[in-house]
Amino acid sequence: MSQGFFSRGFHGRRQENELSARIPPGQHLEHGFPVLSAGPTPHTSLVTWDFTIQGEVDQPLRWTWDDFRALPREAVTQDIHCVTKWSKLDTHWEGVSLDTLLSRVTTSARFVIAFCDGGYTTNLPLEDVLGGKAWVVDTYEGQPLDPQHGGPARLLVPHLYFWKSAKWVRGLRLVDQDEPGFWESLGYHNHGDPWNEERYQGD
Ligand SMILES: Nc1nc2c(c(=O)[nH]1)N[C@H]1C(S)=C(S)[C@@H](COP(=O)(O)O)O[C@H]1N2
Ligand SMILES: [Mo]
């Protein structure tokens, strides 16, 4: 057998091991991009779309679509993990870091409630969305985010199960007291760390 066969085989196996180390317990690798929505896809015109930060803040903030698009942007490559057990590796997104959005308010709040067109909400500790861990993204794999996947813009919080990545997100409400969002009030785990299998209440 040729040297080439061995080196390709070895490389392939090492790569396989590196990939499986990135799949949290109980998850399997998904190559497609399933759509999971609790209701119909809303279609909000970019003319009326805005993103607001409200609640326990020194002053509420509002960005129109043009304002939002003019903010400093980041391109990120992230692995995502759905509680229904699929994980997708190396997904490419572009958008605005929550560090950027939240740097413009002063708050004593410790939690954020993301709210969306269609009424979906999800709750997150502030510390889980700061420090380069969360974005409002409007671009997926170089294309405007498909409405089914949350376009014009969705939250991306890849280190938590994907239900925390609220689609059609329209803003953040900062609160002192945590309160469960849509799936959290229906029995999903309050935090949702895939590496600790925080799937459902009591996990
Ligand atoms: N507004 C809104 N955001 C949502 C949901 C939803 O029903 N409504 N579903 C959540 C769930 S459970 C998952 S797994 C992901 C699915 O995102 P996808 O459809 O792009 O795969 O979106 C999350 N964000
Ligand atoms: Mo999900």
From TrEMBL:
PANTHER family referenced in this protein's UniProt entry, alphabetically: OXIDOREDUCTASE MOLYBDOPTERIN-BINDING DOMAIN-CONTAINING PROTEIN, PROTEIN-METHIONINE-SULFOXIDE REDUCTASE
Entries under Pfam families matching the protein: Oxidored_molyb (PF00174)
The name this protein goes by in its record: Oxidoreductase molybdopterin binding
Signal peptide (UniProt feature, chain positions): none
Gene3D superfamilies: Oxidoreductase, molybdopterin-binding domain
Oxidoreductase molybdopterin-binding domain boundaries: 39-183
